[in-house]
Amino acid sequence: MVCYKFGKKMNNNSIFIEKLRSSGLRPTKQRLEICRLLFDRKKTFHFTITDLCKIIKKEINKKISLATIYNTVHSFKKKGYLKEISVNREKSYFDTNTSDHHHFLDIKTNELIDLKKEDVDKINIKKNLPGKKITSIEVLVKIENNN
Amino acid sequence: MVCYKFGKKMNNNSIFIEKLRSSGLRPTKQRLEICRLLFDRKKTFHFTITDLCKIIKKEINKKISLATIYNTVHSFKKKGYLKEISVNREKSYFDTNTSDHHHFLDIKTNELIDLKKEDVDKINIKKNLPGKKITSIEVLVKIENNN
DNA sequence: TTGTAATTTATAATGATTCTAAAGTAGTGT
DNA sequence: ACACTACTTTAGAATCATTATAAATTACAA
After folding, report:
1. CATH 1.10.10.10: which residues of chain B?
2. pLDDT digits (tens, 9 = 90+) for B75-125
3. Among the listed residues A83, A105, A81, A79, the one whose alpha carbon sits nearest the alpha carbon of residue A94
4. In A24, A40, B86, B129, which residue has its Cα 20 to 30 A from A108's Cα atom?
5. A108 touches chain B (CB under 8 A)
6. Do residue B146 and residue A133 have CB atoms under 8 angstroms apart?
7. Which CATH code for domain A4-86?
């Protein structure tokens, strides 16, 4: 969900309102606040729902209920504004970068770092499963400190 | 954990007992039963802990407590007899195939299918993160029915 | 056989997520 | 501006998976 226009950051909510309306979601106060926290950023943002709850508690005056946070993240995911990346049993991240890309995962800190599609040579799967077609190929590169 | 010898399936537990002892785990009745269910198979086996609980309930006369099932799976993972593959928020699988390999995931059924390393052209990561080294590269190929 | 540390067990506790039903709100038509 | 309706939010309960606890049991070395 783009929040920059003519290279200049939009300070208002008009784009979020448009976007939400155009995908059939009413632009409520809660959704707009969450949009602002998630999408008003230069860099893509990786977060768990627990992370988001903490950020909301810290940054927003009025409380947003837990159920609403879950509902909002799930509807944003369903509408394609968020992508989910599950790295292990404990951590499943949402990613504001919904383009086709890959990830590094620091196995010590669980930090997730975007890896552009262009930074990985084309992946060629030599095995073909009859009756099935490939819908996406996701690469997770696990990393750790170099010493 | 190998359970075939001279191409012939071992009907007894001696290999499991050896293996467990050699990795510092006492070969208890419960662990041996779970070994038998997990490793006495021709094909690699993908399961969630919930799956395993059901299988144990069905196949084993004497009950194994839930805590033991969790403990056993986690210690087998720690000892390198199982590999964990997290495909989404709802499903995290354990895989008896601990070799370096990849997976297909049927996004409709959540079925996981092994993909041999040789069936994927060498993955070349062109981006380098300073101070970090790569410990593994995992590819998840999402598939669905072809119609 | 005995002692001890590892293991298993039932149950309680925790934590994340979903459900529920009532209250509140946005958008439409008047 | 007003009223209506469907959508949304909310607090709290319910559910589900997982982990912690502490007592009973077991493996195994002496």
Report:
1. 4-86
2. 999 999 999 999 988 889 999 999 999 999 999 999 999 999 999 999 999
3. A83
4. A40
5. no
6. yes
7. 1.10.10.10
